[in-house]
Amino acid sequence: MASNFFQQQDRARANSFWLILLFIVGVVGIVATTTSLAYAALEMSGSPPNAAPDLQTKVSVLVSVAAGTLAVILLGTLFKTVSLRAGGGTGVAESLGGRRIVPSTADAEEKRILNVVEEMAIASGTPVPPVFLLNEEQAINAFAAGYSPQDAVIGVTRGAIHQLNREQLQGVIAHEFSHILNGDMRLGIRVIGIIHGIILLNLLGRFLMRIFLHSGSARRSSSNKNSGGILLAVIVVSVALILIGAIGSMIGNLIKAALSRQREYLADASAVQFTRNPEGLSGALKRIGGLLAGSRMKHPRAAEASHLYFACGVQGGFASLFSSHPPLEKRIRAIEPSWDGRYPQSEGSASSARARSMQAAPTAAVAAFAESPVLRPDQVEFAVDHVGNPKLHHQRYARQLLDQIPTELAKMLREPFSVRAVLFAMLIDRQNEIAIAQFRALEDAALDKGGIELTRSIYPQVLELSPLLRLPMVDLGIASLRSLTAPQFEVFDRALEALIRADQKLTVFEWGLSQIIRRHVRPEFGATPPPKVHIYGLQRLGPEVSILLSTVSHVGNASSDSKRAFASGAQHLADCPLEWLPAEECSLAKLEQALNRLLEVSFKQRGRIIDAATRIVCDDGRVQPREAELLRGIADMLQAPVPPVLPGQPLA
Amino acid sequence: MTVFLTILVGMGLFVLGLLAYGVGIFNRLVTLRNRIDNAFSQIEVQLKRRHDLIPNLVETVKGYMSHERETLEAVIQARNQAVGGLQQAAGNPGSAGAIESLAAAERGLSGALSRLFALAEAYPDLKANQNMAQLTEELTSTENKVSFARQAYNDSVTEYNTYKQTFPPVIFANLFGHAQDRQLLQFEGEKIHQVPTVSFN
């Protein structure tokens, strides 16, 4: 079932658990070593009988050494982790000198990479992440940054978009997307934090040493035997700190590198799975091998993000042991065993190959799509099967969906000024009186005149669109919303809320839209810490899961059918005491409360809940856009990217 | 002696903390400054679009308004100045002078354009022209986008300047090469700042 993505997420978390444990053991070891060295030094220095320090002094020295060591490590870890998390993906990309690619760009290469990212995002059911360009970097590389899928961004070098053709870019972007979906960034940030703490020990040792050499030489003239003993003790401690810090951080870096290499293979494998096109990815890797600049980045702070790159971003010390990425040859052979080992000589750009692949625009008709806005149930189930694991046909379908959106509207969705108008227009009611009230609400929310005018001029057109396009349009617009500034977003958010309230009812789409915006745009303007996962079974969550499944059963079912539909989903959650609730007891507000609680549940159990909800939706053999939107809203709140539902798609 | 050692370790910790804090401030300053440059590049895109539209507009209008040569020339000249101003500001977005002269040039362009549109009211044929209607629409929508992008730019400038002037960063800002405040970009005539003249005659 929908377990692949969730297992990946769970495994990433479990991995990080063992890793953290390993590091804790390491830290305890470091503290113990420092303290015992300090003890030894004290014993040595305390040998003159007249100046032997009493027991109490000894203990207090040892305690302060242990506490000090621990404090340094914790402080360093905390600081680094917080600062890495603070800016989210945007912060990392900006600190590397990235420039956000605006969709209105006239540059054909920039346009193409945006298209590739959009297709991949829609195909995997995540909002389109912002794309940053490192314009100065001629090497071929790319990175994904951010703490969670919600605040992730993608960065590419100028070299990458210049040298690679469309298929190769697709491979690279798929690789980055699997980093995002596999939760690798979270893992990386934790490890870097701890290593930073250990490095601080080394710095502290050097600092102590310097001070003591200074004060020691100043005091030697007074030749005090006792201070000589202490001096010796401190020198021993600082040398120990320097050594332990250096060795500790080296071992830490070794672990980090080994882990990172493992995740790279995984990301390569999933990228091939996403695109069903090994040549794209291996072609990109070969180009890196054939290029003089390779994948090496020039930016002074490039090393800080080394774990995020597509290929080795910085030269990794003396041995491949410290390399954050497996060697190119190995990665290529893993994807393409029959490779002859020769790299292409890169001359200029891959323009001929590009011209060819650009012609290969999708020509497939989308007849099934236009005919019926009602989806077949196997399509939904199919989508849930591929949570976090989009396939090639998802990408084709994504391209088709994107082509269905009128060009003018698609252009507006990619632009921060007009994206607001399109989203507002989707919420305007068909009835005239309500629409008038809604426009008044927009004015009251102090939205700028230009925005209101644009909304007014496009909403008749937007109303005519197929409901199936609503979610993809939202996904497409998220990236532009994320480039608003905080004050602009506040106005937008207020206007959106006013608009949703103005029609006196909360529709499923309105609810879904505000959920998606809350999950994917709000974190950009002030971090909301993700809730801690601490529930691993559903036994005690009967009421919450009941509300969720009952709500799903009521949307798109008459009351008599809804009970049966509910039962068909409930039988898959036998370990959870479930009870069907009548429509009066279900509301979207209650659903939201329930979902907030369910966020504390492990990913594996969340996958089961989404499976059950899918069964309910599919029970009557028809899936309405409303149901698909609710499902997407729920999956989104549970932080599971669900690929779009494919009409006319054979079950895989 | 242990007291001495404890104080020393404490001092070491304090210095390390201070160092870490300084690094944090440094990074934040850089990030905020990069954000301003990003915001500026968004304005640049829209302004370029605006500048590209104007020759078309003048070309369309020319046939109808041959008597208004001066106004048309004024528009062209204002447009060229604005193009120059944009180039300068894009080359050196940190300079307050460049930003100010860009703002002045854009203000001049807006003024010349509004005179042109006011005159165009007197030519019904021109108003009926399909091309003209399209260009006007395009210019208005570009104008809206410019003002939105400008708002974003000013927001990020304000955030940067404010952060720079708050207490702990203000000590380091100069040291880290963030001496100058960035300049806000104002296109509208500064009507608010003009003191109304009151006469008691």
Give your account of this protein's structure.
Chain A is mostly helical. Among the domains of chain A are: 10-338, no CATH class; 364-374 and 390-505, no CATH class. Chain A is 65% helix and 2% strand. Chain A is built from 26 helices and four strands. Chain A has helices at 3-45, 55-86, 88-95, 108-124, 158-163, 166-182, 184-219, 225-275, 278-290, 328-335, 351-359, 367-371, 377-385, 392-404, 407-413, 416-427, 432-444, 449-463, 470-481, 486-502, 508-520, 542-554, 559-570, 588-598, 603-618, 625-637; strands at 99-100, 131-134, 142-145, 153-157. Chain A has a four-stranded mixed β-sheet with strand order 1-2-4-3. The two termini of chain A are 12 Å apart. Chain B has one domain: Up-down Bundle (de novo design (two linked rop proteins)). Helix content of chain B is 78%, strand content 0%. Chain B contains six helices and no strands. Chain B has helices at residues 2-62, 69-91, 96-120, 124-128, 130-165, 167-173. Chain B is rod-shaped.
> Which structural class best describes the helix and strand composition of chain B?
mainly alpha
**Which residues of chain A form runs of ≥5 with pLDDT under 50?**
347-386, 645-652
Shape of chain B: rod-shaped
Elements of chain B, N to C (H/E): HHHHHH
Give the oligomer, counting copies of the same chain as homo and different chains as hetero. Answer: heterodimer
Strand order of the largest sheet of chain A: 1-2-4-3
Number of distinct beta strands of chain A: 4
Helix content of chain A: 55-70%
Mean pLDDT of chain B: 83
Provide mean pLDDT of chain A, rounded: 74
Helix and strand succession of chain A?
HHHEHEEEHHHHHHHHHHHHHHHHHHHHHH
User: How would a crystallographer describe the biggest sheet of chain B?
Assistant: none
Q: Provide the β-strand percentage band of chain B.
A: under 5%
Q: Biggest interface in this structure? A: A-B, 49 and 40 residues
**What is the CATH topology of chain B?**
de novo design (two linked rop proteins)
| Computed structural class of chain A | mainly alpha
Q: What is the CATH superfamily label of chain B? A: LemA-like domain
Report the radius of gyration of chain B as a whole number of Å: 25 Å
